[in-house]
Amino acid sequence: MGVNASFAGREYPPEGVYEVGREKIREFAEATSGGRPHPVHTDPEAARALGYPDVVAPPTFAVIVAQRSDARLVRDPGAGIDYSRVVHGEQRFAHHRPIVAGDRLVATLHVDGVRGAGGHSMVTTRSEIATEGGEAVCTATSTIVVRGPEAEDA
Amino acid sequence: MNAPRLADLAVGDEVARATYPIQRADLVRYAGASGDVNPIHYNERFAREVGLPDVIAHGMFTMATAVRVVVDWCGDPGAVIDYGVRFTKPVVVSDAEGAQVEVVATVGAVDTDARTARIDLAATCAGVGVLGKARAVVRLG
Prior knowledge:
The complex is a heterodimer. Chain A is of the alpha+beta class. Chain A is 18% helix and 33% strand. Chain A has helices spanning 22-31, 44-49, 63-74; strands at residues 11-12, 18-19, 86-95, 104-117, 120-131, 136-146. Chain A is elongated and about 50 Å long. The two termini of chain A are 18 Å apart. By secondary structure, chain B is α+β, with helices and mostly antiparallel strands. In chain B, β3 and β4 form a beta hairpin. Chain A binds chain B through residues 24, 27-28, 30-34, 38, 40-41, 50, 52, 56, 58-60, 63-64, 67-68, 84, 87-95, 98, 141, 152-154, and chain B through 20-21, 26, 29-30, 32-36, 50-52, 59-61, 63-65, 67-68, 71, 76-78, 80-87, 90, 133, 136.
């Protein structure tokens, strides 16, 4: 069974709040810097010296929020997405402003496209990440490739 | 180190390059930090069962690693206002040797009105490109 093309255009409203913690930013920054994070990720004073209200999230930190958002589509039984056949194809983050510790983020998920390509399905999603108060923070766009049953090569 | 200035940049300039070693432990740490605990990123038996040559890095880990060179160059992670990649080839991380990802950053475009530069990243592992259209837009003074 392939991916349900009629899901294109679907929207999933915000579901739960992701509260950005200082220690989560530190953990993510350490994991993506070979253990040598920039001080704005770990030291509130260093962040304030560069004009930020608190420690700043690394450029790809929003993936945590985006993947939770995407999971709503991936787990939707009607979508027909077999997660064991999913490969990440593309990812982009457009930051409207940096994510900082203390942010309370919500995500609206848009299914921007479902198309077939060589026996695979390509699904493009967009999570509009904003504060609870409605301030736009990040647009995270992702394309996943769902390998078709005939395509066994990874 | 002084922050780079927009006026000093020309399209095509190489602004930075770096080589990042990756070990299995880095993937485990990233799995925990990101919440992506797919066993293809740490379990060799599982990876081979699903047709992969060995454990592979998370695409998102490779993406995060590649932008390090930009952050180190510009000095402010919050200045990266847009960053996108295509995942073209997996980074295979062997138990014995790990992997090395080499990243070369060049100026792709300069927008003097917006005060931004687009930095294009070429990321390779064992001589093979692992990211396509890897572009980071950085706000500069």
